[in-house]
Amino acid sequence: MKKIAVCGKGGSGKSVIVRLLAGGIRDRGQRVLVVDSDESNTGLYRMLGFDNPPEPLIDFMGGKKKVEADIEAKIRSGVPEHLVHLMAREISVADIPAPYIVHNGGIRLVTVGKILMALEGCACPMGIVSRSFLKELRLEADEIAIVDMEAGVEHFGRGVETSVDCVLVVVEPSLDSLEVAERIGNLSTQIKIGDVWAVLNKITSKEFAAELTDELNKRDLAVVGSIRYDPEIFESCLHGRLLSGHVAEEDVEKILDILFP
Ligand SMILES: Nc1ncnc2c1ncn2[C@@H]1O[C@H](COP(=O)(O)OP(=O)(O)OP(=O)(O)O)[C@@H](O)[C@H]1O
Ligand SMILES: [Mg+2]
């Protein structure tokens, strides 16, 4: 398993879980590339302990205007939008120059791009950058990529997940979250992703975990593990600090034992 996409409803805990997985995988001796593919939220770099985010990959590819022009030209020449591809060749982590990648204790971070200004246009170019980058990204045997996805399911429409091997769907205790998870499960099956798991998050009792597991199983989703509500995590998020939480980290270890036996 090389490329893992972390998906789910807005606010369910995707970024928190990306950070916890990245730390856990790094501690097991693998090198981790975190790909921030969320066009809206800007705080992942802080959770990972970086002072600043890297420059976005959309700039590495020439900037938003150029990317938009390239996409338009391809569509005009008859390529359907869902097949537009922006990168001419494979790229390895070592090929990504500073300032487009930052590195901190075994964890590297790249970010696709953020919508920062009003009337900036739609996020489609960012989706195509994510899709193209993940398709061409070549990882070494000891490298794992973890992708922090935009909330919801739109990125499936843009084909961002077509090159990932594993989808983790974060589910917090709410019916909305279950419903989004069901849709993500179905969309992942449609594009034939081999490994699709739900991860329960913000769990406050064994009973809630059992109830959610039941509901997810009814929706054809298997649960890989359950992360408890951890006040330390809540506090790190509140203060924008390097994320840590002993309770949640302990739970993530059990999930990693299953994902990387
Ligand atoms: N296991 C947990 N224990 C306690 N609080 C948690 C836990 N997981 C997430 N949270 C809380 O939920 C909030 C949202 O988490 P996070 O930012 O990871 O969600 P997200 O799914 O990435 O959101 P978005 O869709 O906006 O990107 C955090 O700020 C934190 O307060
Ligand atoms: Mg997030």
**Overall pLDDT confidence:** 92
The level-1 CATH class: Alpha Beta
- By CATH, the superfamily comes out as P-loop containing nucleotide triphosphate hydrolases
Looking at CATH, which topology would you report? Rossmann fold
Q: How many individual helices?
A: 10
Helix content: 25-40%
Assign the structural class, choosing from mainly alpha, mainly beta, alpha/beta, alpha+beta, or little secondary structure. alpha/beta
Please provide the ordered H/E string of secondary-structure elements. EHEHHHEEEHEEHEHEHEHH
Tell me the count of domains: 1
Query: What hetero molecules are in the model?
Result: adenosine-5'-triphosphate, magnesium ion
> Could you give the distance between the termini?
11 Å
Assign an overall shape: globular
Roughly what fraction of the amino acids lie in strands?
A: 15-25%
Strand order, main sheet: write it out: 4-5-2-7-1-8-9-10
CATH architecture identity: 3-Layer(aba) Sandwich
> What integer value in Å does the Rg equal?
18 Å
Strand runs, count: 10
Largest sheet: 8 strands, mixed
The low-confidence runs, each spanning 5 or more residues with pLDDT under 50, are none
